[in-house]
């Protein structure tokens, strides 16, 4: 399976992983090892741990005594550490500078999670960022993240579907370069079943399995690579994805080079060639040049 960009292969790789279909990707990086998906997983872990912290018994009630004071405090400290790591990851996705993030989290850390929203609103006013919030996507998405966080933590243990829908709406406000990758990751997590913890564990097992086992290229293995990566290789059957205008030819490429690259991809098939495109887009103009009509 060939595509013009790695982004399309990311979607395919996730689908093959979840279906348990053997595949080999001609790339050093697994999708979940990329910066944005990795940060998103850290953020989700933090949200889940924040939910656990909120669910812990408080005061000197019976539930607390059953756990024991020390054990309870250790569990709470662990959850808060994970929550703060999730906050760093979330604000990283928003494009915040590490120095700003650390300065704010240092003030938020001793406060109960329920008080974070009010504190952030006051912090915006005190630092003169109120007008900037309305104009800057980075700041507004980060502030929204911190405002929504307590609610996300609350629903994380009860309704992962509702949580993911909320995260999708927040993700739409991120910079496009980040939002697109995170949308793929959230879509993948949404298609899984089980609790949030079970979904994150499933993804973690996939990553570990890929690191531990050497790829085996059997007759049923799906080979994933870009058009560039296909040079010099041949297969019995080839499926080229994303054969639509704006992708093939790519908007950032020179037309003649894009035409040559598409020819290279098409000639990788010995016996059968399949070309596909999304219904919503316009077919690649290269198809007409080849005398191929889109169905």
From TrEMBL:
Keywords noted in UniProt: ATP-binding, Helicase, Hydrolase, Nucleotide-binding
GO molecular function (one): DNA binding
Keyword ATP-binding: yes
SUPFAM superfamilies: P-loop containing nucleoside triphosphate hydrolases
Superkingdom, taxonomy of origin: Bacteria
GO biological process, one term: recombinational repair
InterPro entries with a match to the protein in the record: DNA_helicase_UvrD-like_C, DNA_helicase_UvrD/REP, P-loop_NTPase
PROSITE patterns per UniProt: UVRD_HELICASE_CTER
Keyword ATP-binding: yes
Positions of the UvrD-like helicase C-terminal domain: 1-232
PANTHER family: ATP-DEPENDENT DNA HELICASE SRS2 (PTHR11070:SF2), UVRD / RECB / PCRA DNA HELICASE FAMILY MEMBER (PTHR11070)
Name by which UniProt lists this protein: DNA 3'-5' helicase II
Organism: Acidithiobacillus caldus (strain SM-1)
């Amino acid at each position: 399976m060939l595509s013009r960009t790695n982004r399309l292969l990311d979607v395919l790789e996730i689908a093959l992983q979840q279906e348990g279909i053997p595949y080999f990707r001609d790339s050093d990086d697994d999708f979940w090892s990329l910066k944005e998906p990795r940060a998103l997983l850290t953020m989700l872990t933090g949200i889940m741990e924040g939910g656990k912290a909120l669910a812990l018994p408080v005061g000197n009630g019976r539930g607390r005594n059953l756990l024991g004071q020390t054990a309870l405090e250790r569990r709470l400290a662990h959850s808060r550490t994970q929550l703060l790591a999730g906050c760093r990851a979330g604000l990283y996705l928003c494009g915040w500078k590490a120095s700003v993030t650390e300065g704010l989290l240092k003030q938020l850390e001793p406060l109960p999670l329920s008080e974070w929203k009010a504190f952030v609103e006051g912090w915006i006013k005190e630092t003169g960022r109120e007008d900037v919030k309305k104009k800057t996507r980075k700041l507004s998405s980060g502030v929204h993240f911190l405002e929504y966080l307590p609610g996300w933590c609350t629903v994380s243990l009860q309704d992962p579907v509702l949580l993911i829908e909320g995260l999708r709406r927040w993700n739409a406000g991120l910079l496009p370069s980040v939002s697109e990758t995170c949308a793929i990751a959230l879509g993948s997590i949404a298609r899984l079943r089980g609790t949030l913890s079970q979904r994150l564990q499933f993804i973690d097992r996939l990553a570990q399995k890929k690191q531990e086992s050497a790829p085996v290229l059997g007759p049923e293995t799906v080979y994933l690579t870009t058009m560039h990566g296909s040079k010099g290789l041949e297969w019995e059957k080839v499926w080229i994805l994303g054969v639509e205008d704006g992708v093939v030819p790519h908007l950032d490429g020179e037309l003649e080079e894009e035409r040559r690259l598409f020819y290279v991809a098409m000639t990788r098939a010995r016996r059968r060639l399949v070309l596909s495109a999304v219904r919503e887009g316009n077919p690649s103009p290269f198809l007409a040049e080849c005398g191929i009509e889109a169905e």
